[in-house]
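[job 4417] fold queue: 2 targets
>>> target A
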Amino acid sequence: MDPILQQSYAFDNKEAELELGCIGTLIYNSTGTVVAGLSVSAPIERRRDDRNPKLISAADKISARLGYKSSYRK
């Protein structure tokens, strides 16, 4: 399985914009299909890994409202 799918999030480390970092995760629908992404961007020096669980939790809540069940994850 893809390591990013296993950890549920990915980073953008100044790839798109100098001095800007992003944390992103996926949103799933009722069939387990990825339908969107959720991300937070900030100056790279302010990005903190301890916020990852909050972002993942928010995406999980949105996915659940779309009918996604965690048992769909491969």
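>>> target B
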Amino acid sequence: MRVVVSNCNTTHAMTLAICTQAEAAARPGTEIVPLTPAWGPESCESWYDSFLSAAAVLESVRELAAAEPFDALVMAGFGEHGRQGARELLDVPVVDITEAAAHLACLLGDRYAVVTSLARTAPLIEESLRATGTWDRCAGVYATGIPVLGLEEDVEATAASFAVQARRALADGADVVVLGCAGLSGLHRRLVETLDVPVVDGVAAAVGLAETLHTLGLSTSKHAGYATPPAKGRVVPGARVVPAELVDLPDAGDAASLGR
């Protein structure tokens, strides 16, 4: 089967790191197809980044689906928006790494905790987990303070920071740890050895669930909320700049009247 793995940002090095994770988790015979959006933020670390990323990823997914077939989509942005739109657009399984990791964590213990990069992303992660119905089982979101693009700069320091926050989470009552970021190749295995509790990597979880759904012949219901949207009159998003000479600006008098 062919699984498209979409990065939520435009940093190609992160796409490659994410797809390395995906390939390590995939079954023999599964092809991992990397997808980097053509525009959008270089890293997602805020509400604005997340909404911008969602539009960029959805446009890239729509274009890819029109050009070539694939069997599932894995959306590799932890806490990022867009999965509902992708489920409207596609007839194949769409698995978001946040949702996949949380559901698997709920099968492995009573309470899980998310260890992520920056504290400012915690509200986005909480919103995503609430939407999946898994927030009530979450012991909290713990931040390392490391920016997304800095996670791979010093692997040892990153691993140590994640271990510190994971221990805090376990002391607070969690019994499973979820890694709240993509591109952290092999970190979950290191933390399992250090912490002696299950550590869930979202990319690996999402790939495994995508393969299982494909094997079972299951995909998103199109009966109600995820019914395919009407194509007529839809605006396709994109970073398009209108030249200044084509903009018909009002003169001072018109502007004054508009402001009243």
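[job 4417] complete. Note on B: The chain has one domain: 2-216.
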